[in-house]
Amino acid sequence: MYNTSAFSAYAGLEDEPAVITPTHYLDAKIYFYLNYAKTEQALRMLQIELGEDMFKECLLTFMERWKYKHPTPIDLFNTFNDVSKKNLNWFWQSWYFQNGGIPDLAITKVVKDKNKFSVTVENKGDIPIPAVISFYNGDKLVKTITNPAVMWQNNKQEIVVTYEASETITSIKLGSAIIPDSNRGDNEYEIK
């Protein structure tokens, strides 16, 4: 779906330059990845972070403010910060300015107390992505909890998500088809 699988597979390539690198400095092998796969994922993660309506308002304001002009990426960043009334510099730094970057979340621990579940999610990567946790009864989705990427701000490495189930839970899954993750092998937990 989208470029999620391409980004997940190639994230953290050796010597991967920052997205903010001018394209005329890029090797042809990395050009597609940075300009399409990674940039699309960054904007998709920002949309999840802000919500569709706020993201659209920020984008439309940017286009209105900068029509017939020559905006830079910094102008986009400042417009989003201004319109959303949020300091998104932590996001811009991780997704656009750092070299490389790997999206990788993992379920590292699940504690069950009757029908209450405490799920520990570790950020093994270095790019902030939302933690989407789904609880299942067999094949039936019971509940999905989405935690925004801002929770990883200030290099936080671990969160605990709690959920009190009203029915039997047989498995817990982390992530979704539109959230990149370089190692999906540690994103599922079967309840015994």
Give the CA-CA distance, first to last residue: 32 Å
Helix content: 25-40%
H-E string = HHHHHEEEEEEE
Give the spatial strand order of the biggest sheet: 4-3-6-7
Number of domains: 2
Mean pLDDT: 92
Biggest sheet features: 4 strands, antiparallel
Tell me the Rg in angstroms: 18 Å
State the low-pLDDT regions, or none.
Answer: none
Q: Approximately what portion of the residues adopt beta-strand conformation? A: 15-25%
Helix/strand structural class: alpha+beta
Question: What is the number of beta strands?
Answer: 7
- Give the number of helices: 5
How does the overall form come out from the CA principal axes? globular
Task: Describe the model.
With about 190 residues, the protein is an alpha+beta fold. It folds into 2 domains: about 5-95, no CATH class; about 105-190, Immunoglobulin-like (Sandwich), CATH 2.60.40. The chain has 5 helices and 7 strands; from the N terminus they run H-H-H-H-H-E-E-E-E-E-E-E. The protein has helices at about 5-10, 30-50, 50-65, 75-85, 90-95; strands spanning about 105-115, 115-125, 130-135, 140-145, 160-165, 170-175, 190. Strands 4-3-6-7 form a 4-stranded antiparallel sheet, with no helix packed on it. Strands 1-2-5 form a 3-stranded antiparallel sheet, with no helix packed on it. Strand 1 (about 105-115) and strand 2 (about 115-125) form a beta hairpin. Helix 1 (about 5-10) packs across helix 2 and helix 3 (about 50-65) crosses helix 4 (about 75-85). The protein is globular and about 60 Å long. About 25% of the residues are buried. The mean pLDDT is about 90.
